[in-house]
Amino acid sequence: MKIICIGLNYVAHIKEFDRDYIPTEPVVFLKPDSAVLPKKNPFVIPVFSNRVEYEVEILVKINKVGKHIDEKFAHKYYDEIGLGIDFTARDLQFELKAKGQPWEKSKGFDGSAVIGEKFISKDEFQDLNNINFRLEKNGEEVQVGNTSLMIFKIDEIITHISKFYTLKKGDIIFTGTPSGVGPVAKDDVLKGYLEKEKLIDIKVK
Questions:
Q1: Burial of 18 per CB tally in 10 Å (0-12, 13-18, 19+)
Q2: pLDDT digit string (tens) for 181-205?
């Protein structure tokens, strides 16, 4: 299983970091399978970071092998939509970027990929380009997103990724985070909702 992530896919998120750059194609990075947080486990803040931030995202699970997928056929390569959190060691990310080094260590560390309790059939959504999702921290709403605000839509993302990586059954795509990202601290509780259904409920240690 590959975890393929899209960065900078919501304009408001880009602006919250005082950036003016709007990507002209999806920004792609990977997380190893060891990044997946085991079910029912808490998220443990890694010792190498003083600022780990949450990023709630819509997930897409690939259902068959594909390469060089035409956008008009991309919808055939996934049946389910989920919710996840891309934990980011922000201080380490900034440090690595400043040195011109790859920043996978800040994104792909153990436990950095939270995958919701289940995936939901895409047929249950009236419009995949109008899906609401949100994240609460300690009962306070901190992120609110809608797929209509994506710079690159799901099918566009699949087409782009498949130019470079063969997609395989079970691969998961993190499609990008809306604005409102922020730090976590010990004993925080994070709850994520896809439409009205709670799919994430984890504690931070």
A1: exposed
A2: 999 999 999 999 999 999 999 999 9
> What span, in angstroms and rounded, lies between the C-alpha atoms of 4 and 184?
23
**pTM as predicted:** 0.97
Structure tokens at 17: 């970091």
Question: Which domains occur in the chain, in start order?
Answer: 3-203 (3.90.850.10)
How far, CA to CA in Å, does 7 sit from each of 10, 87, 167?
9, 13, 18
Buried b (16+ CB within 10 A) or exposed e, 138-171: eeeebbebebebbbbbbbbbbbbbbeeeebeeeb
Over range 42-59, report the average pLDDT. Answer: 98
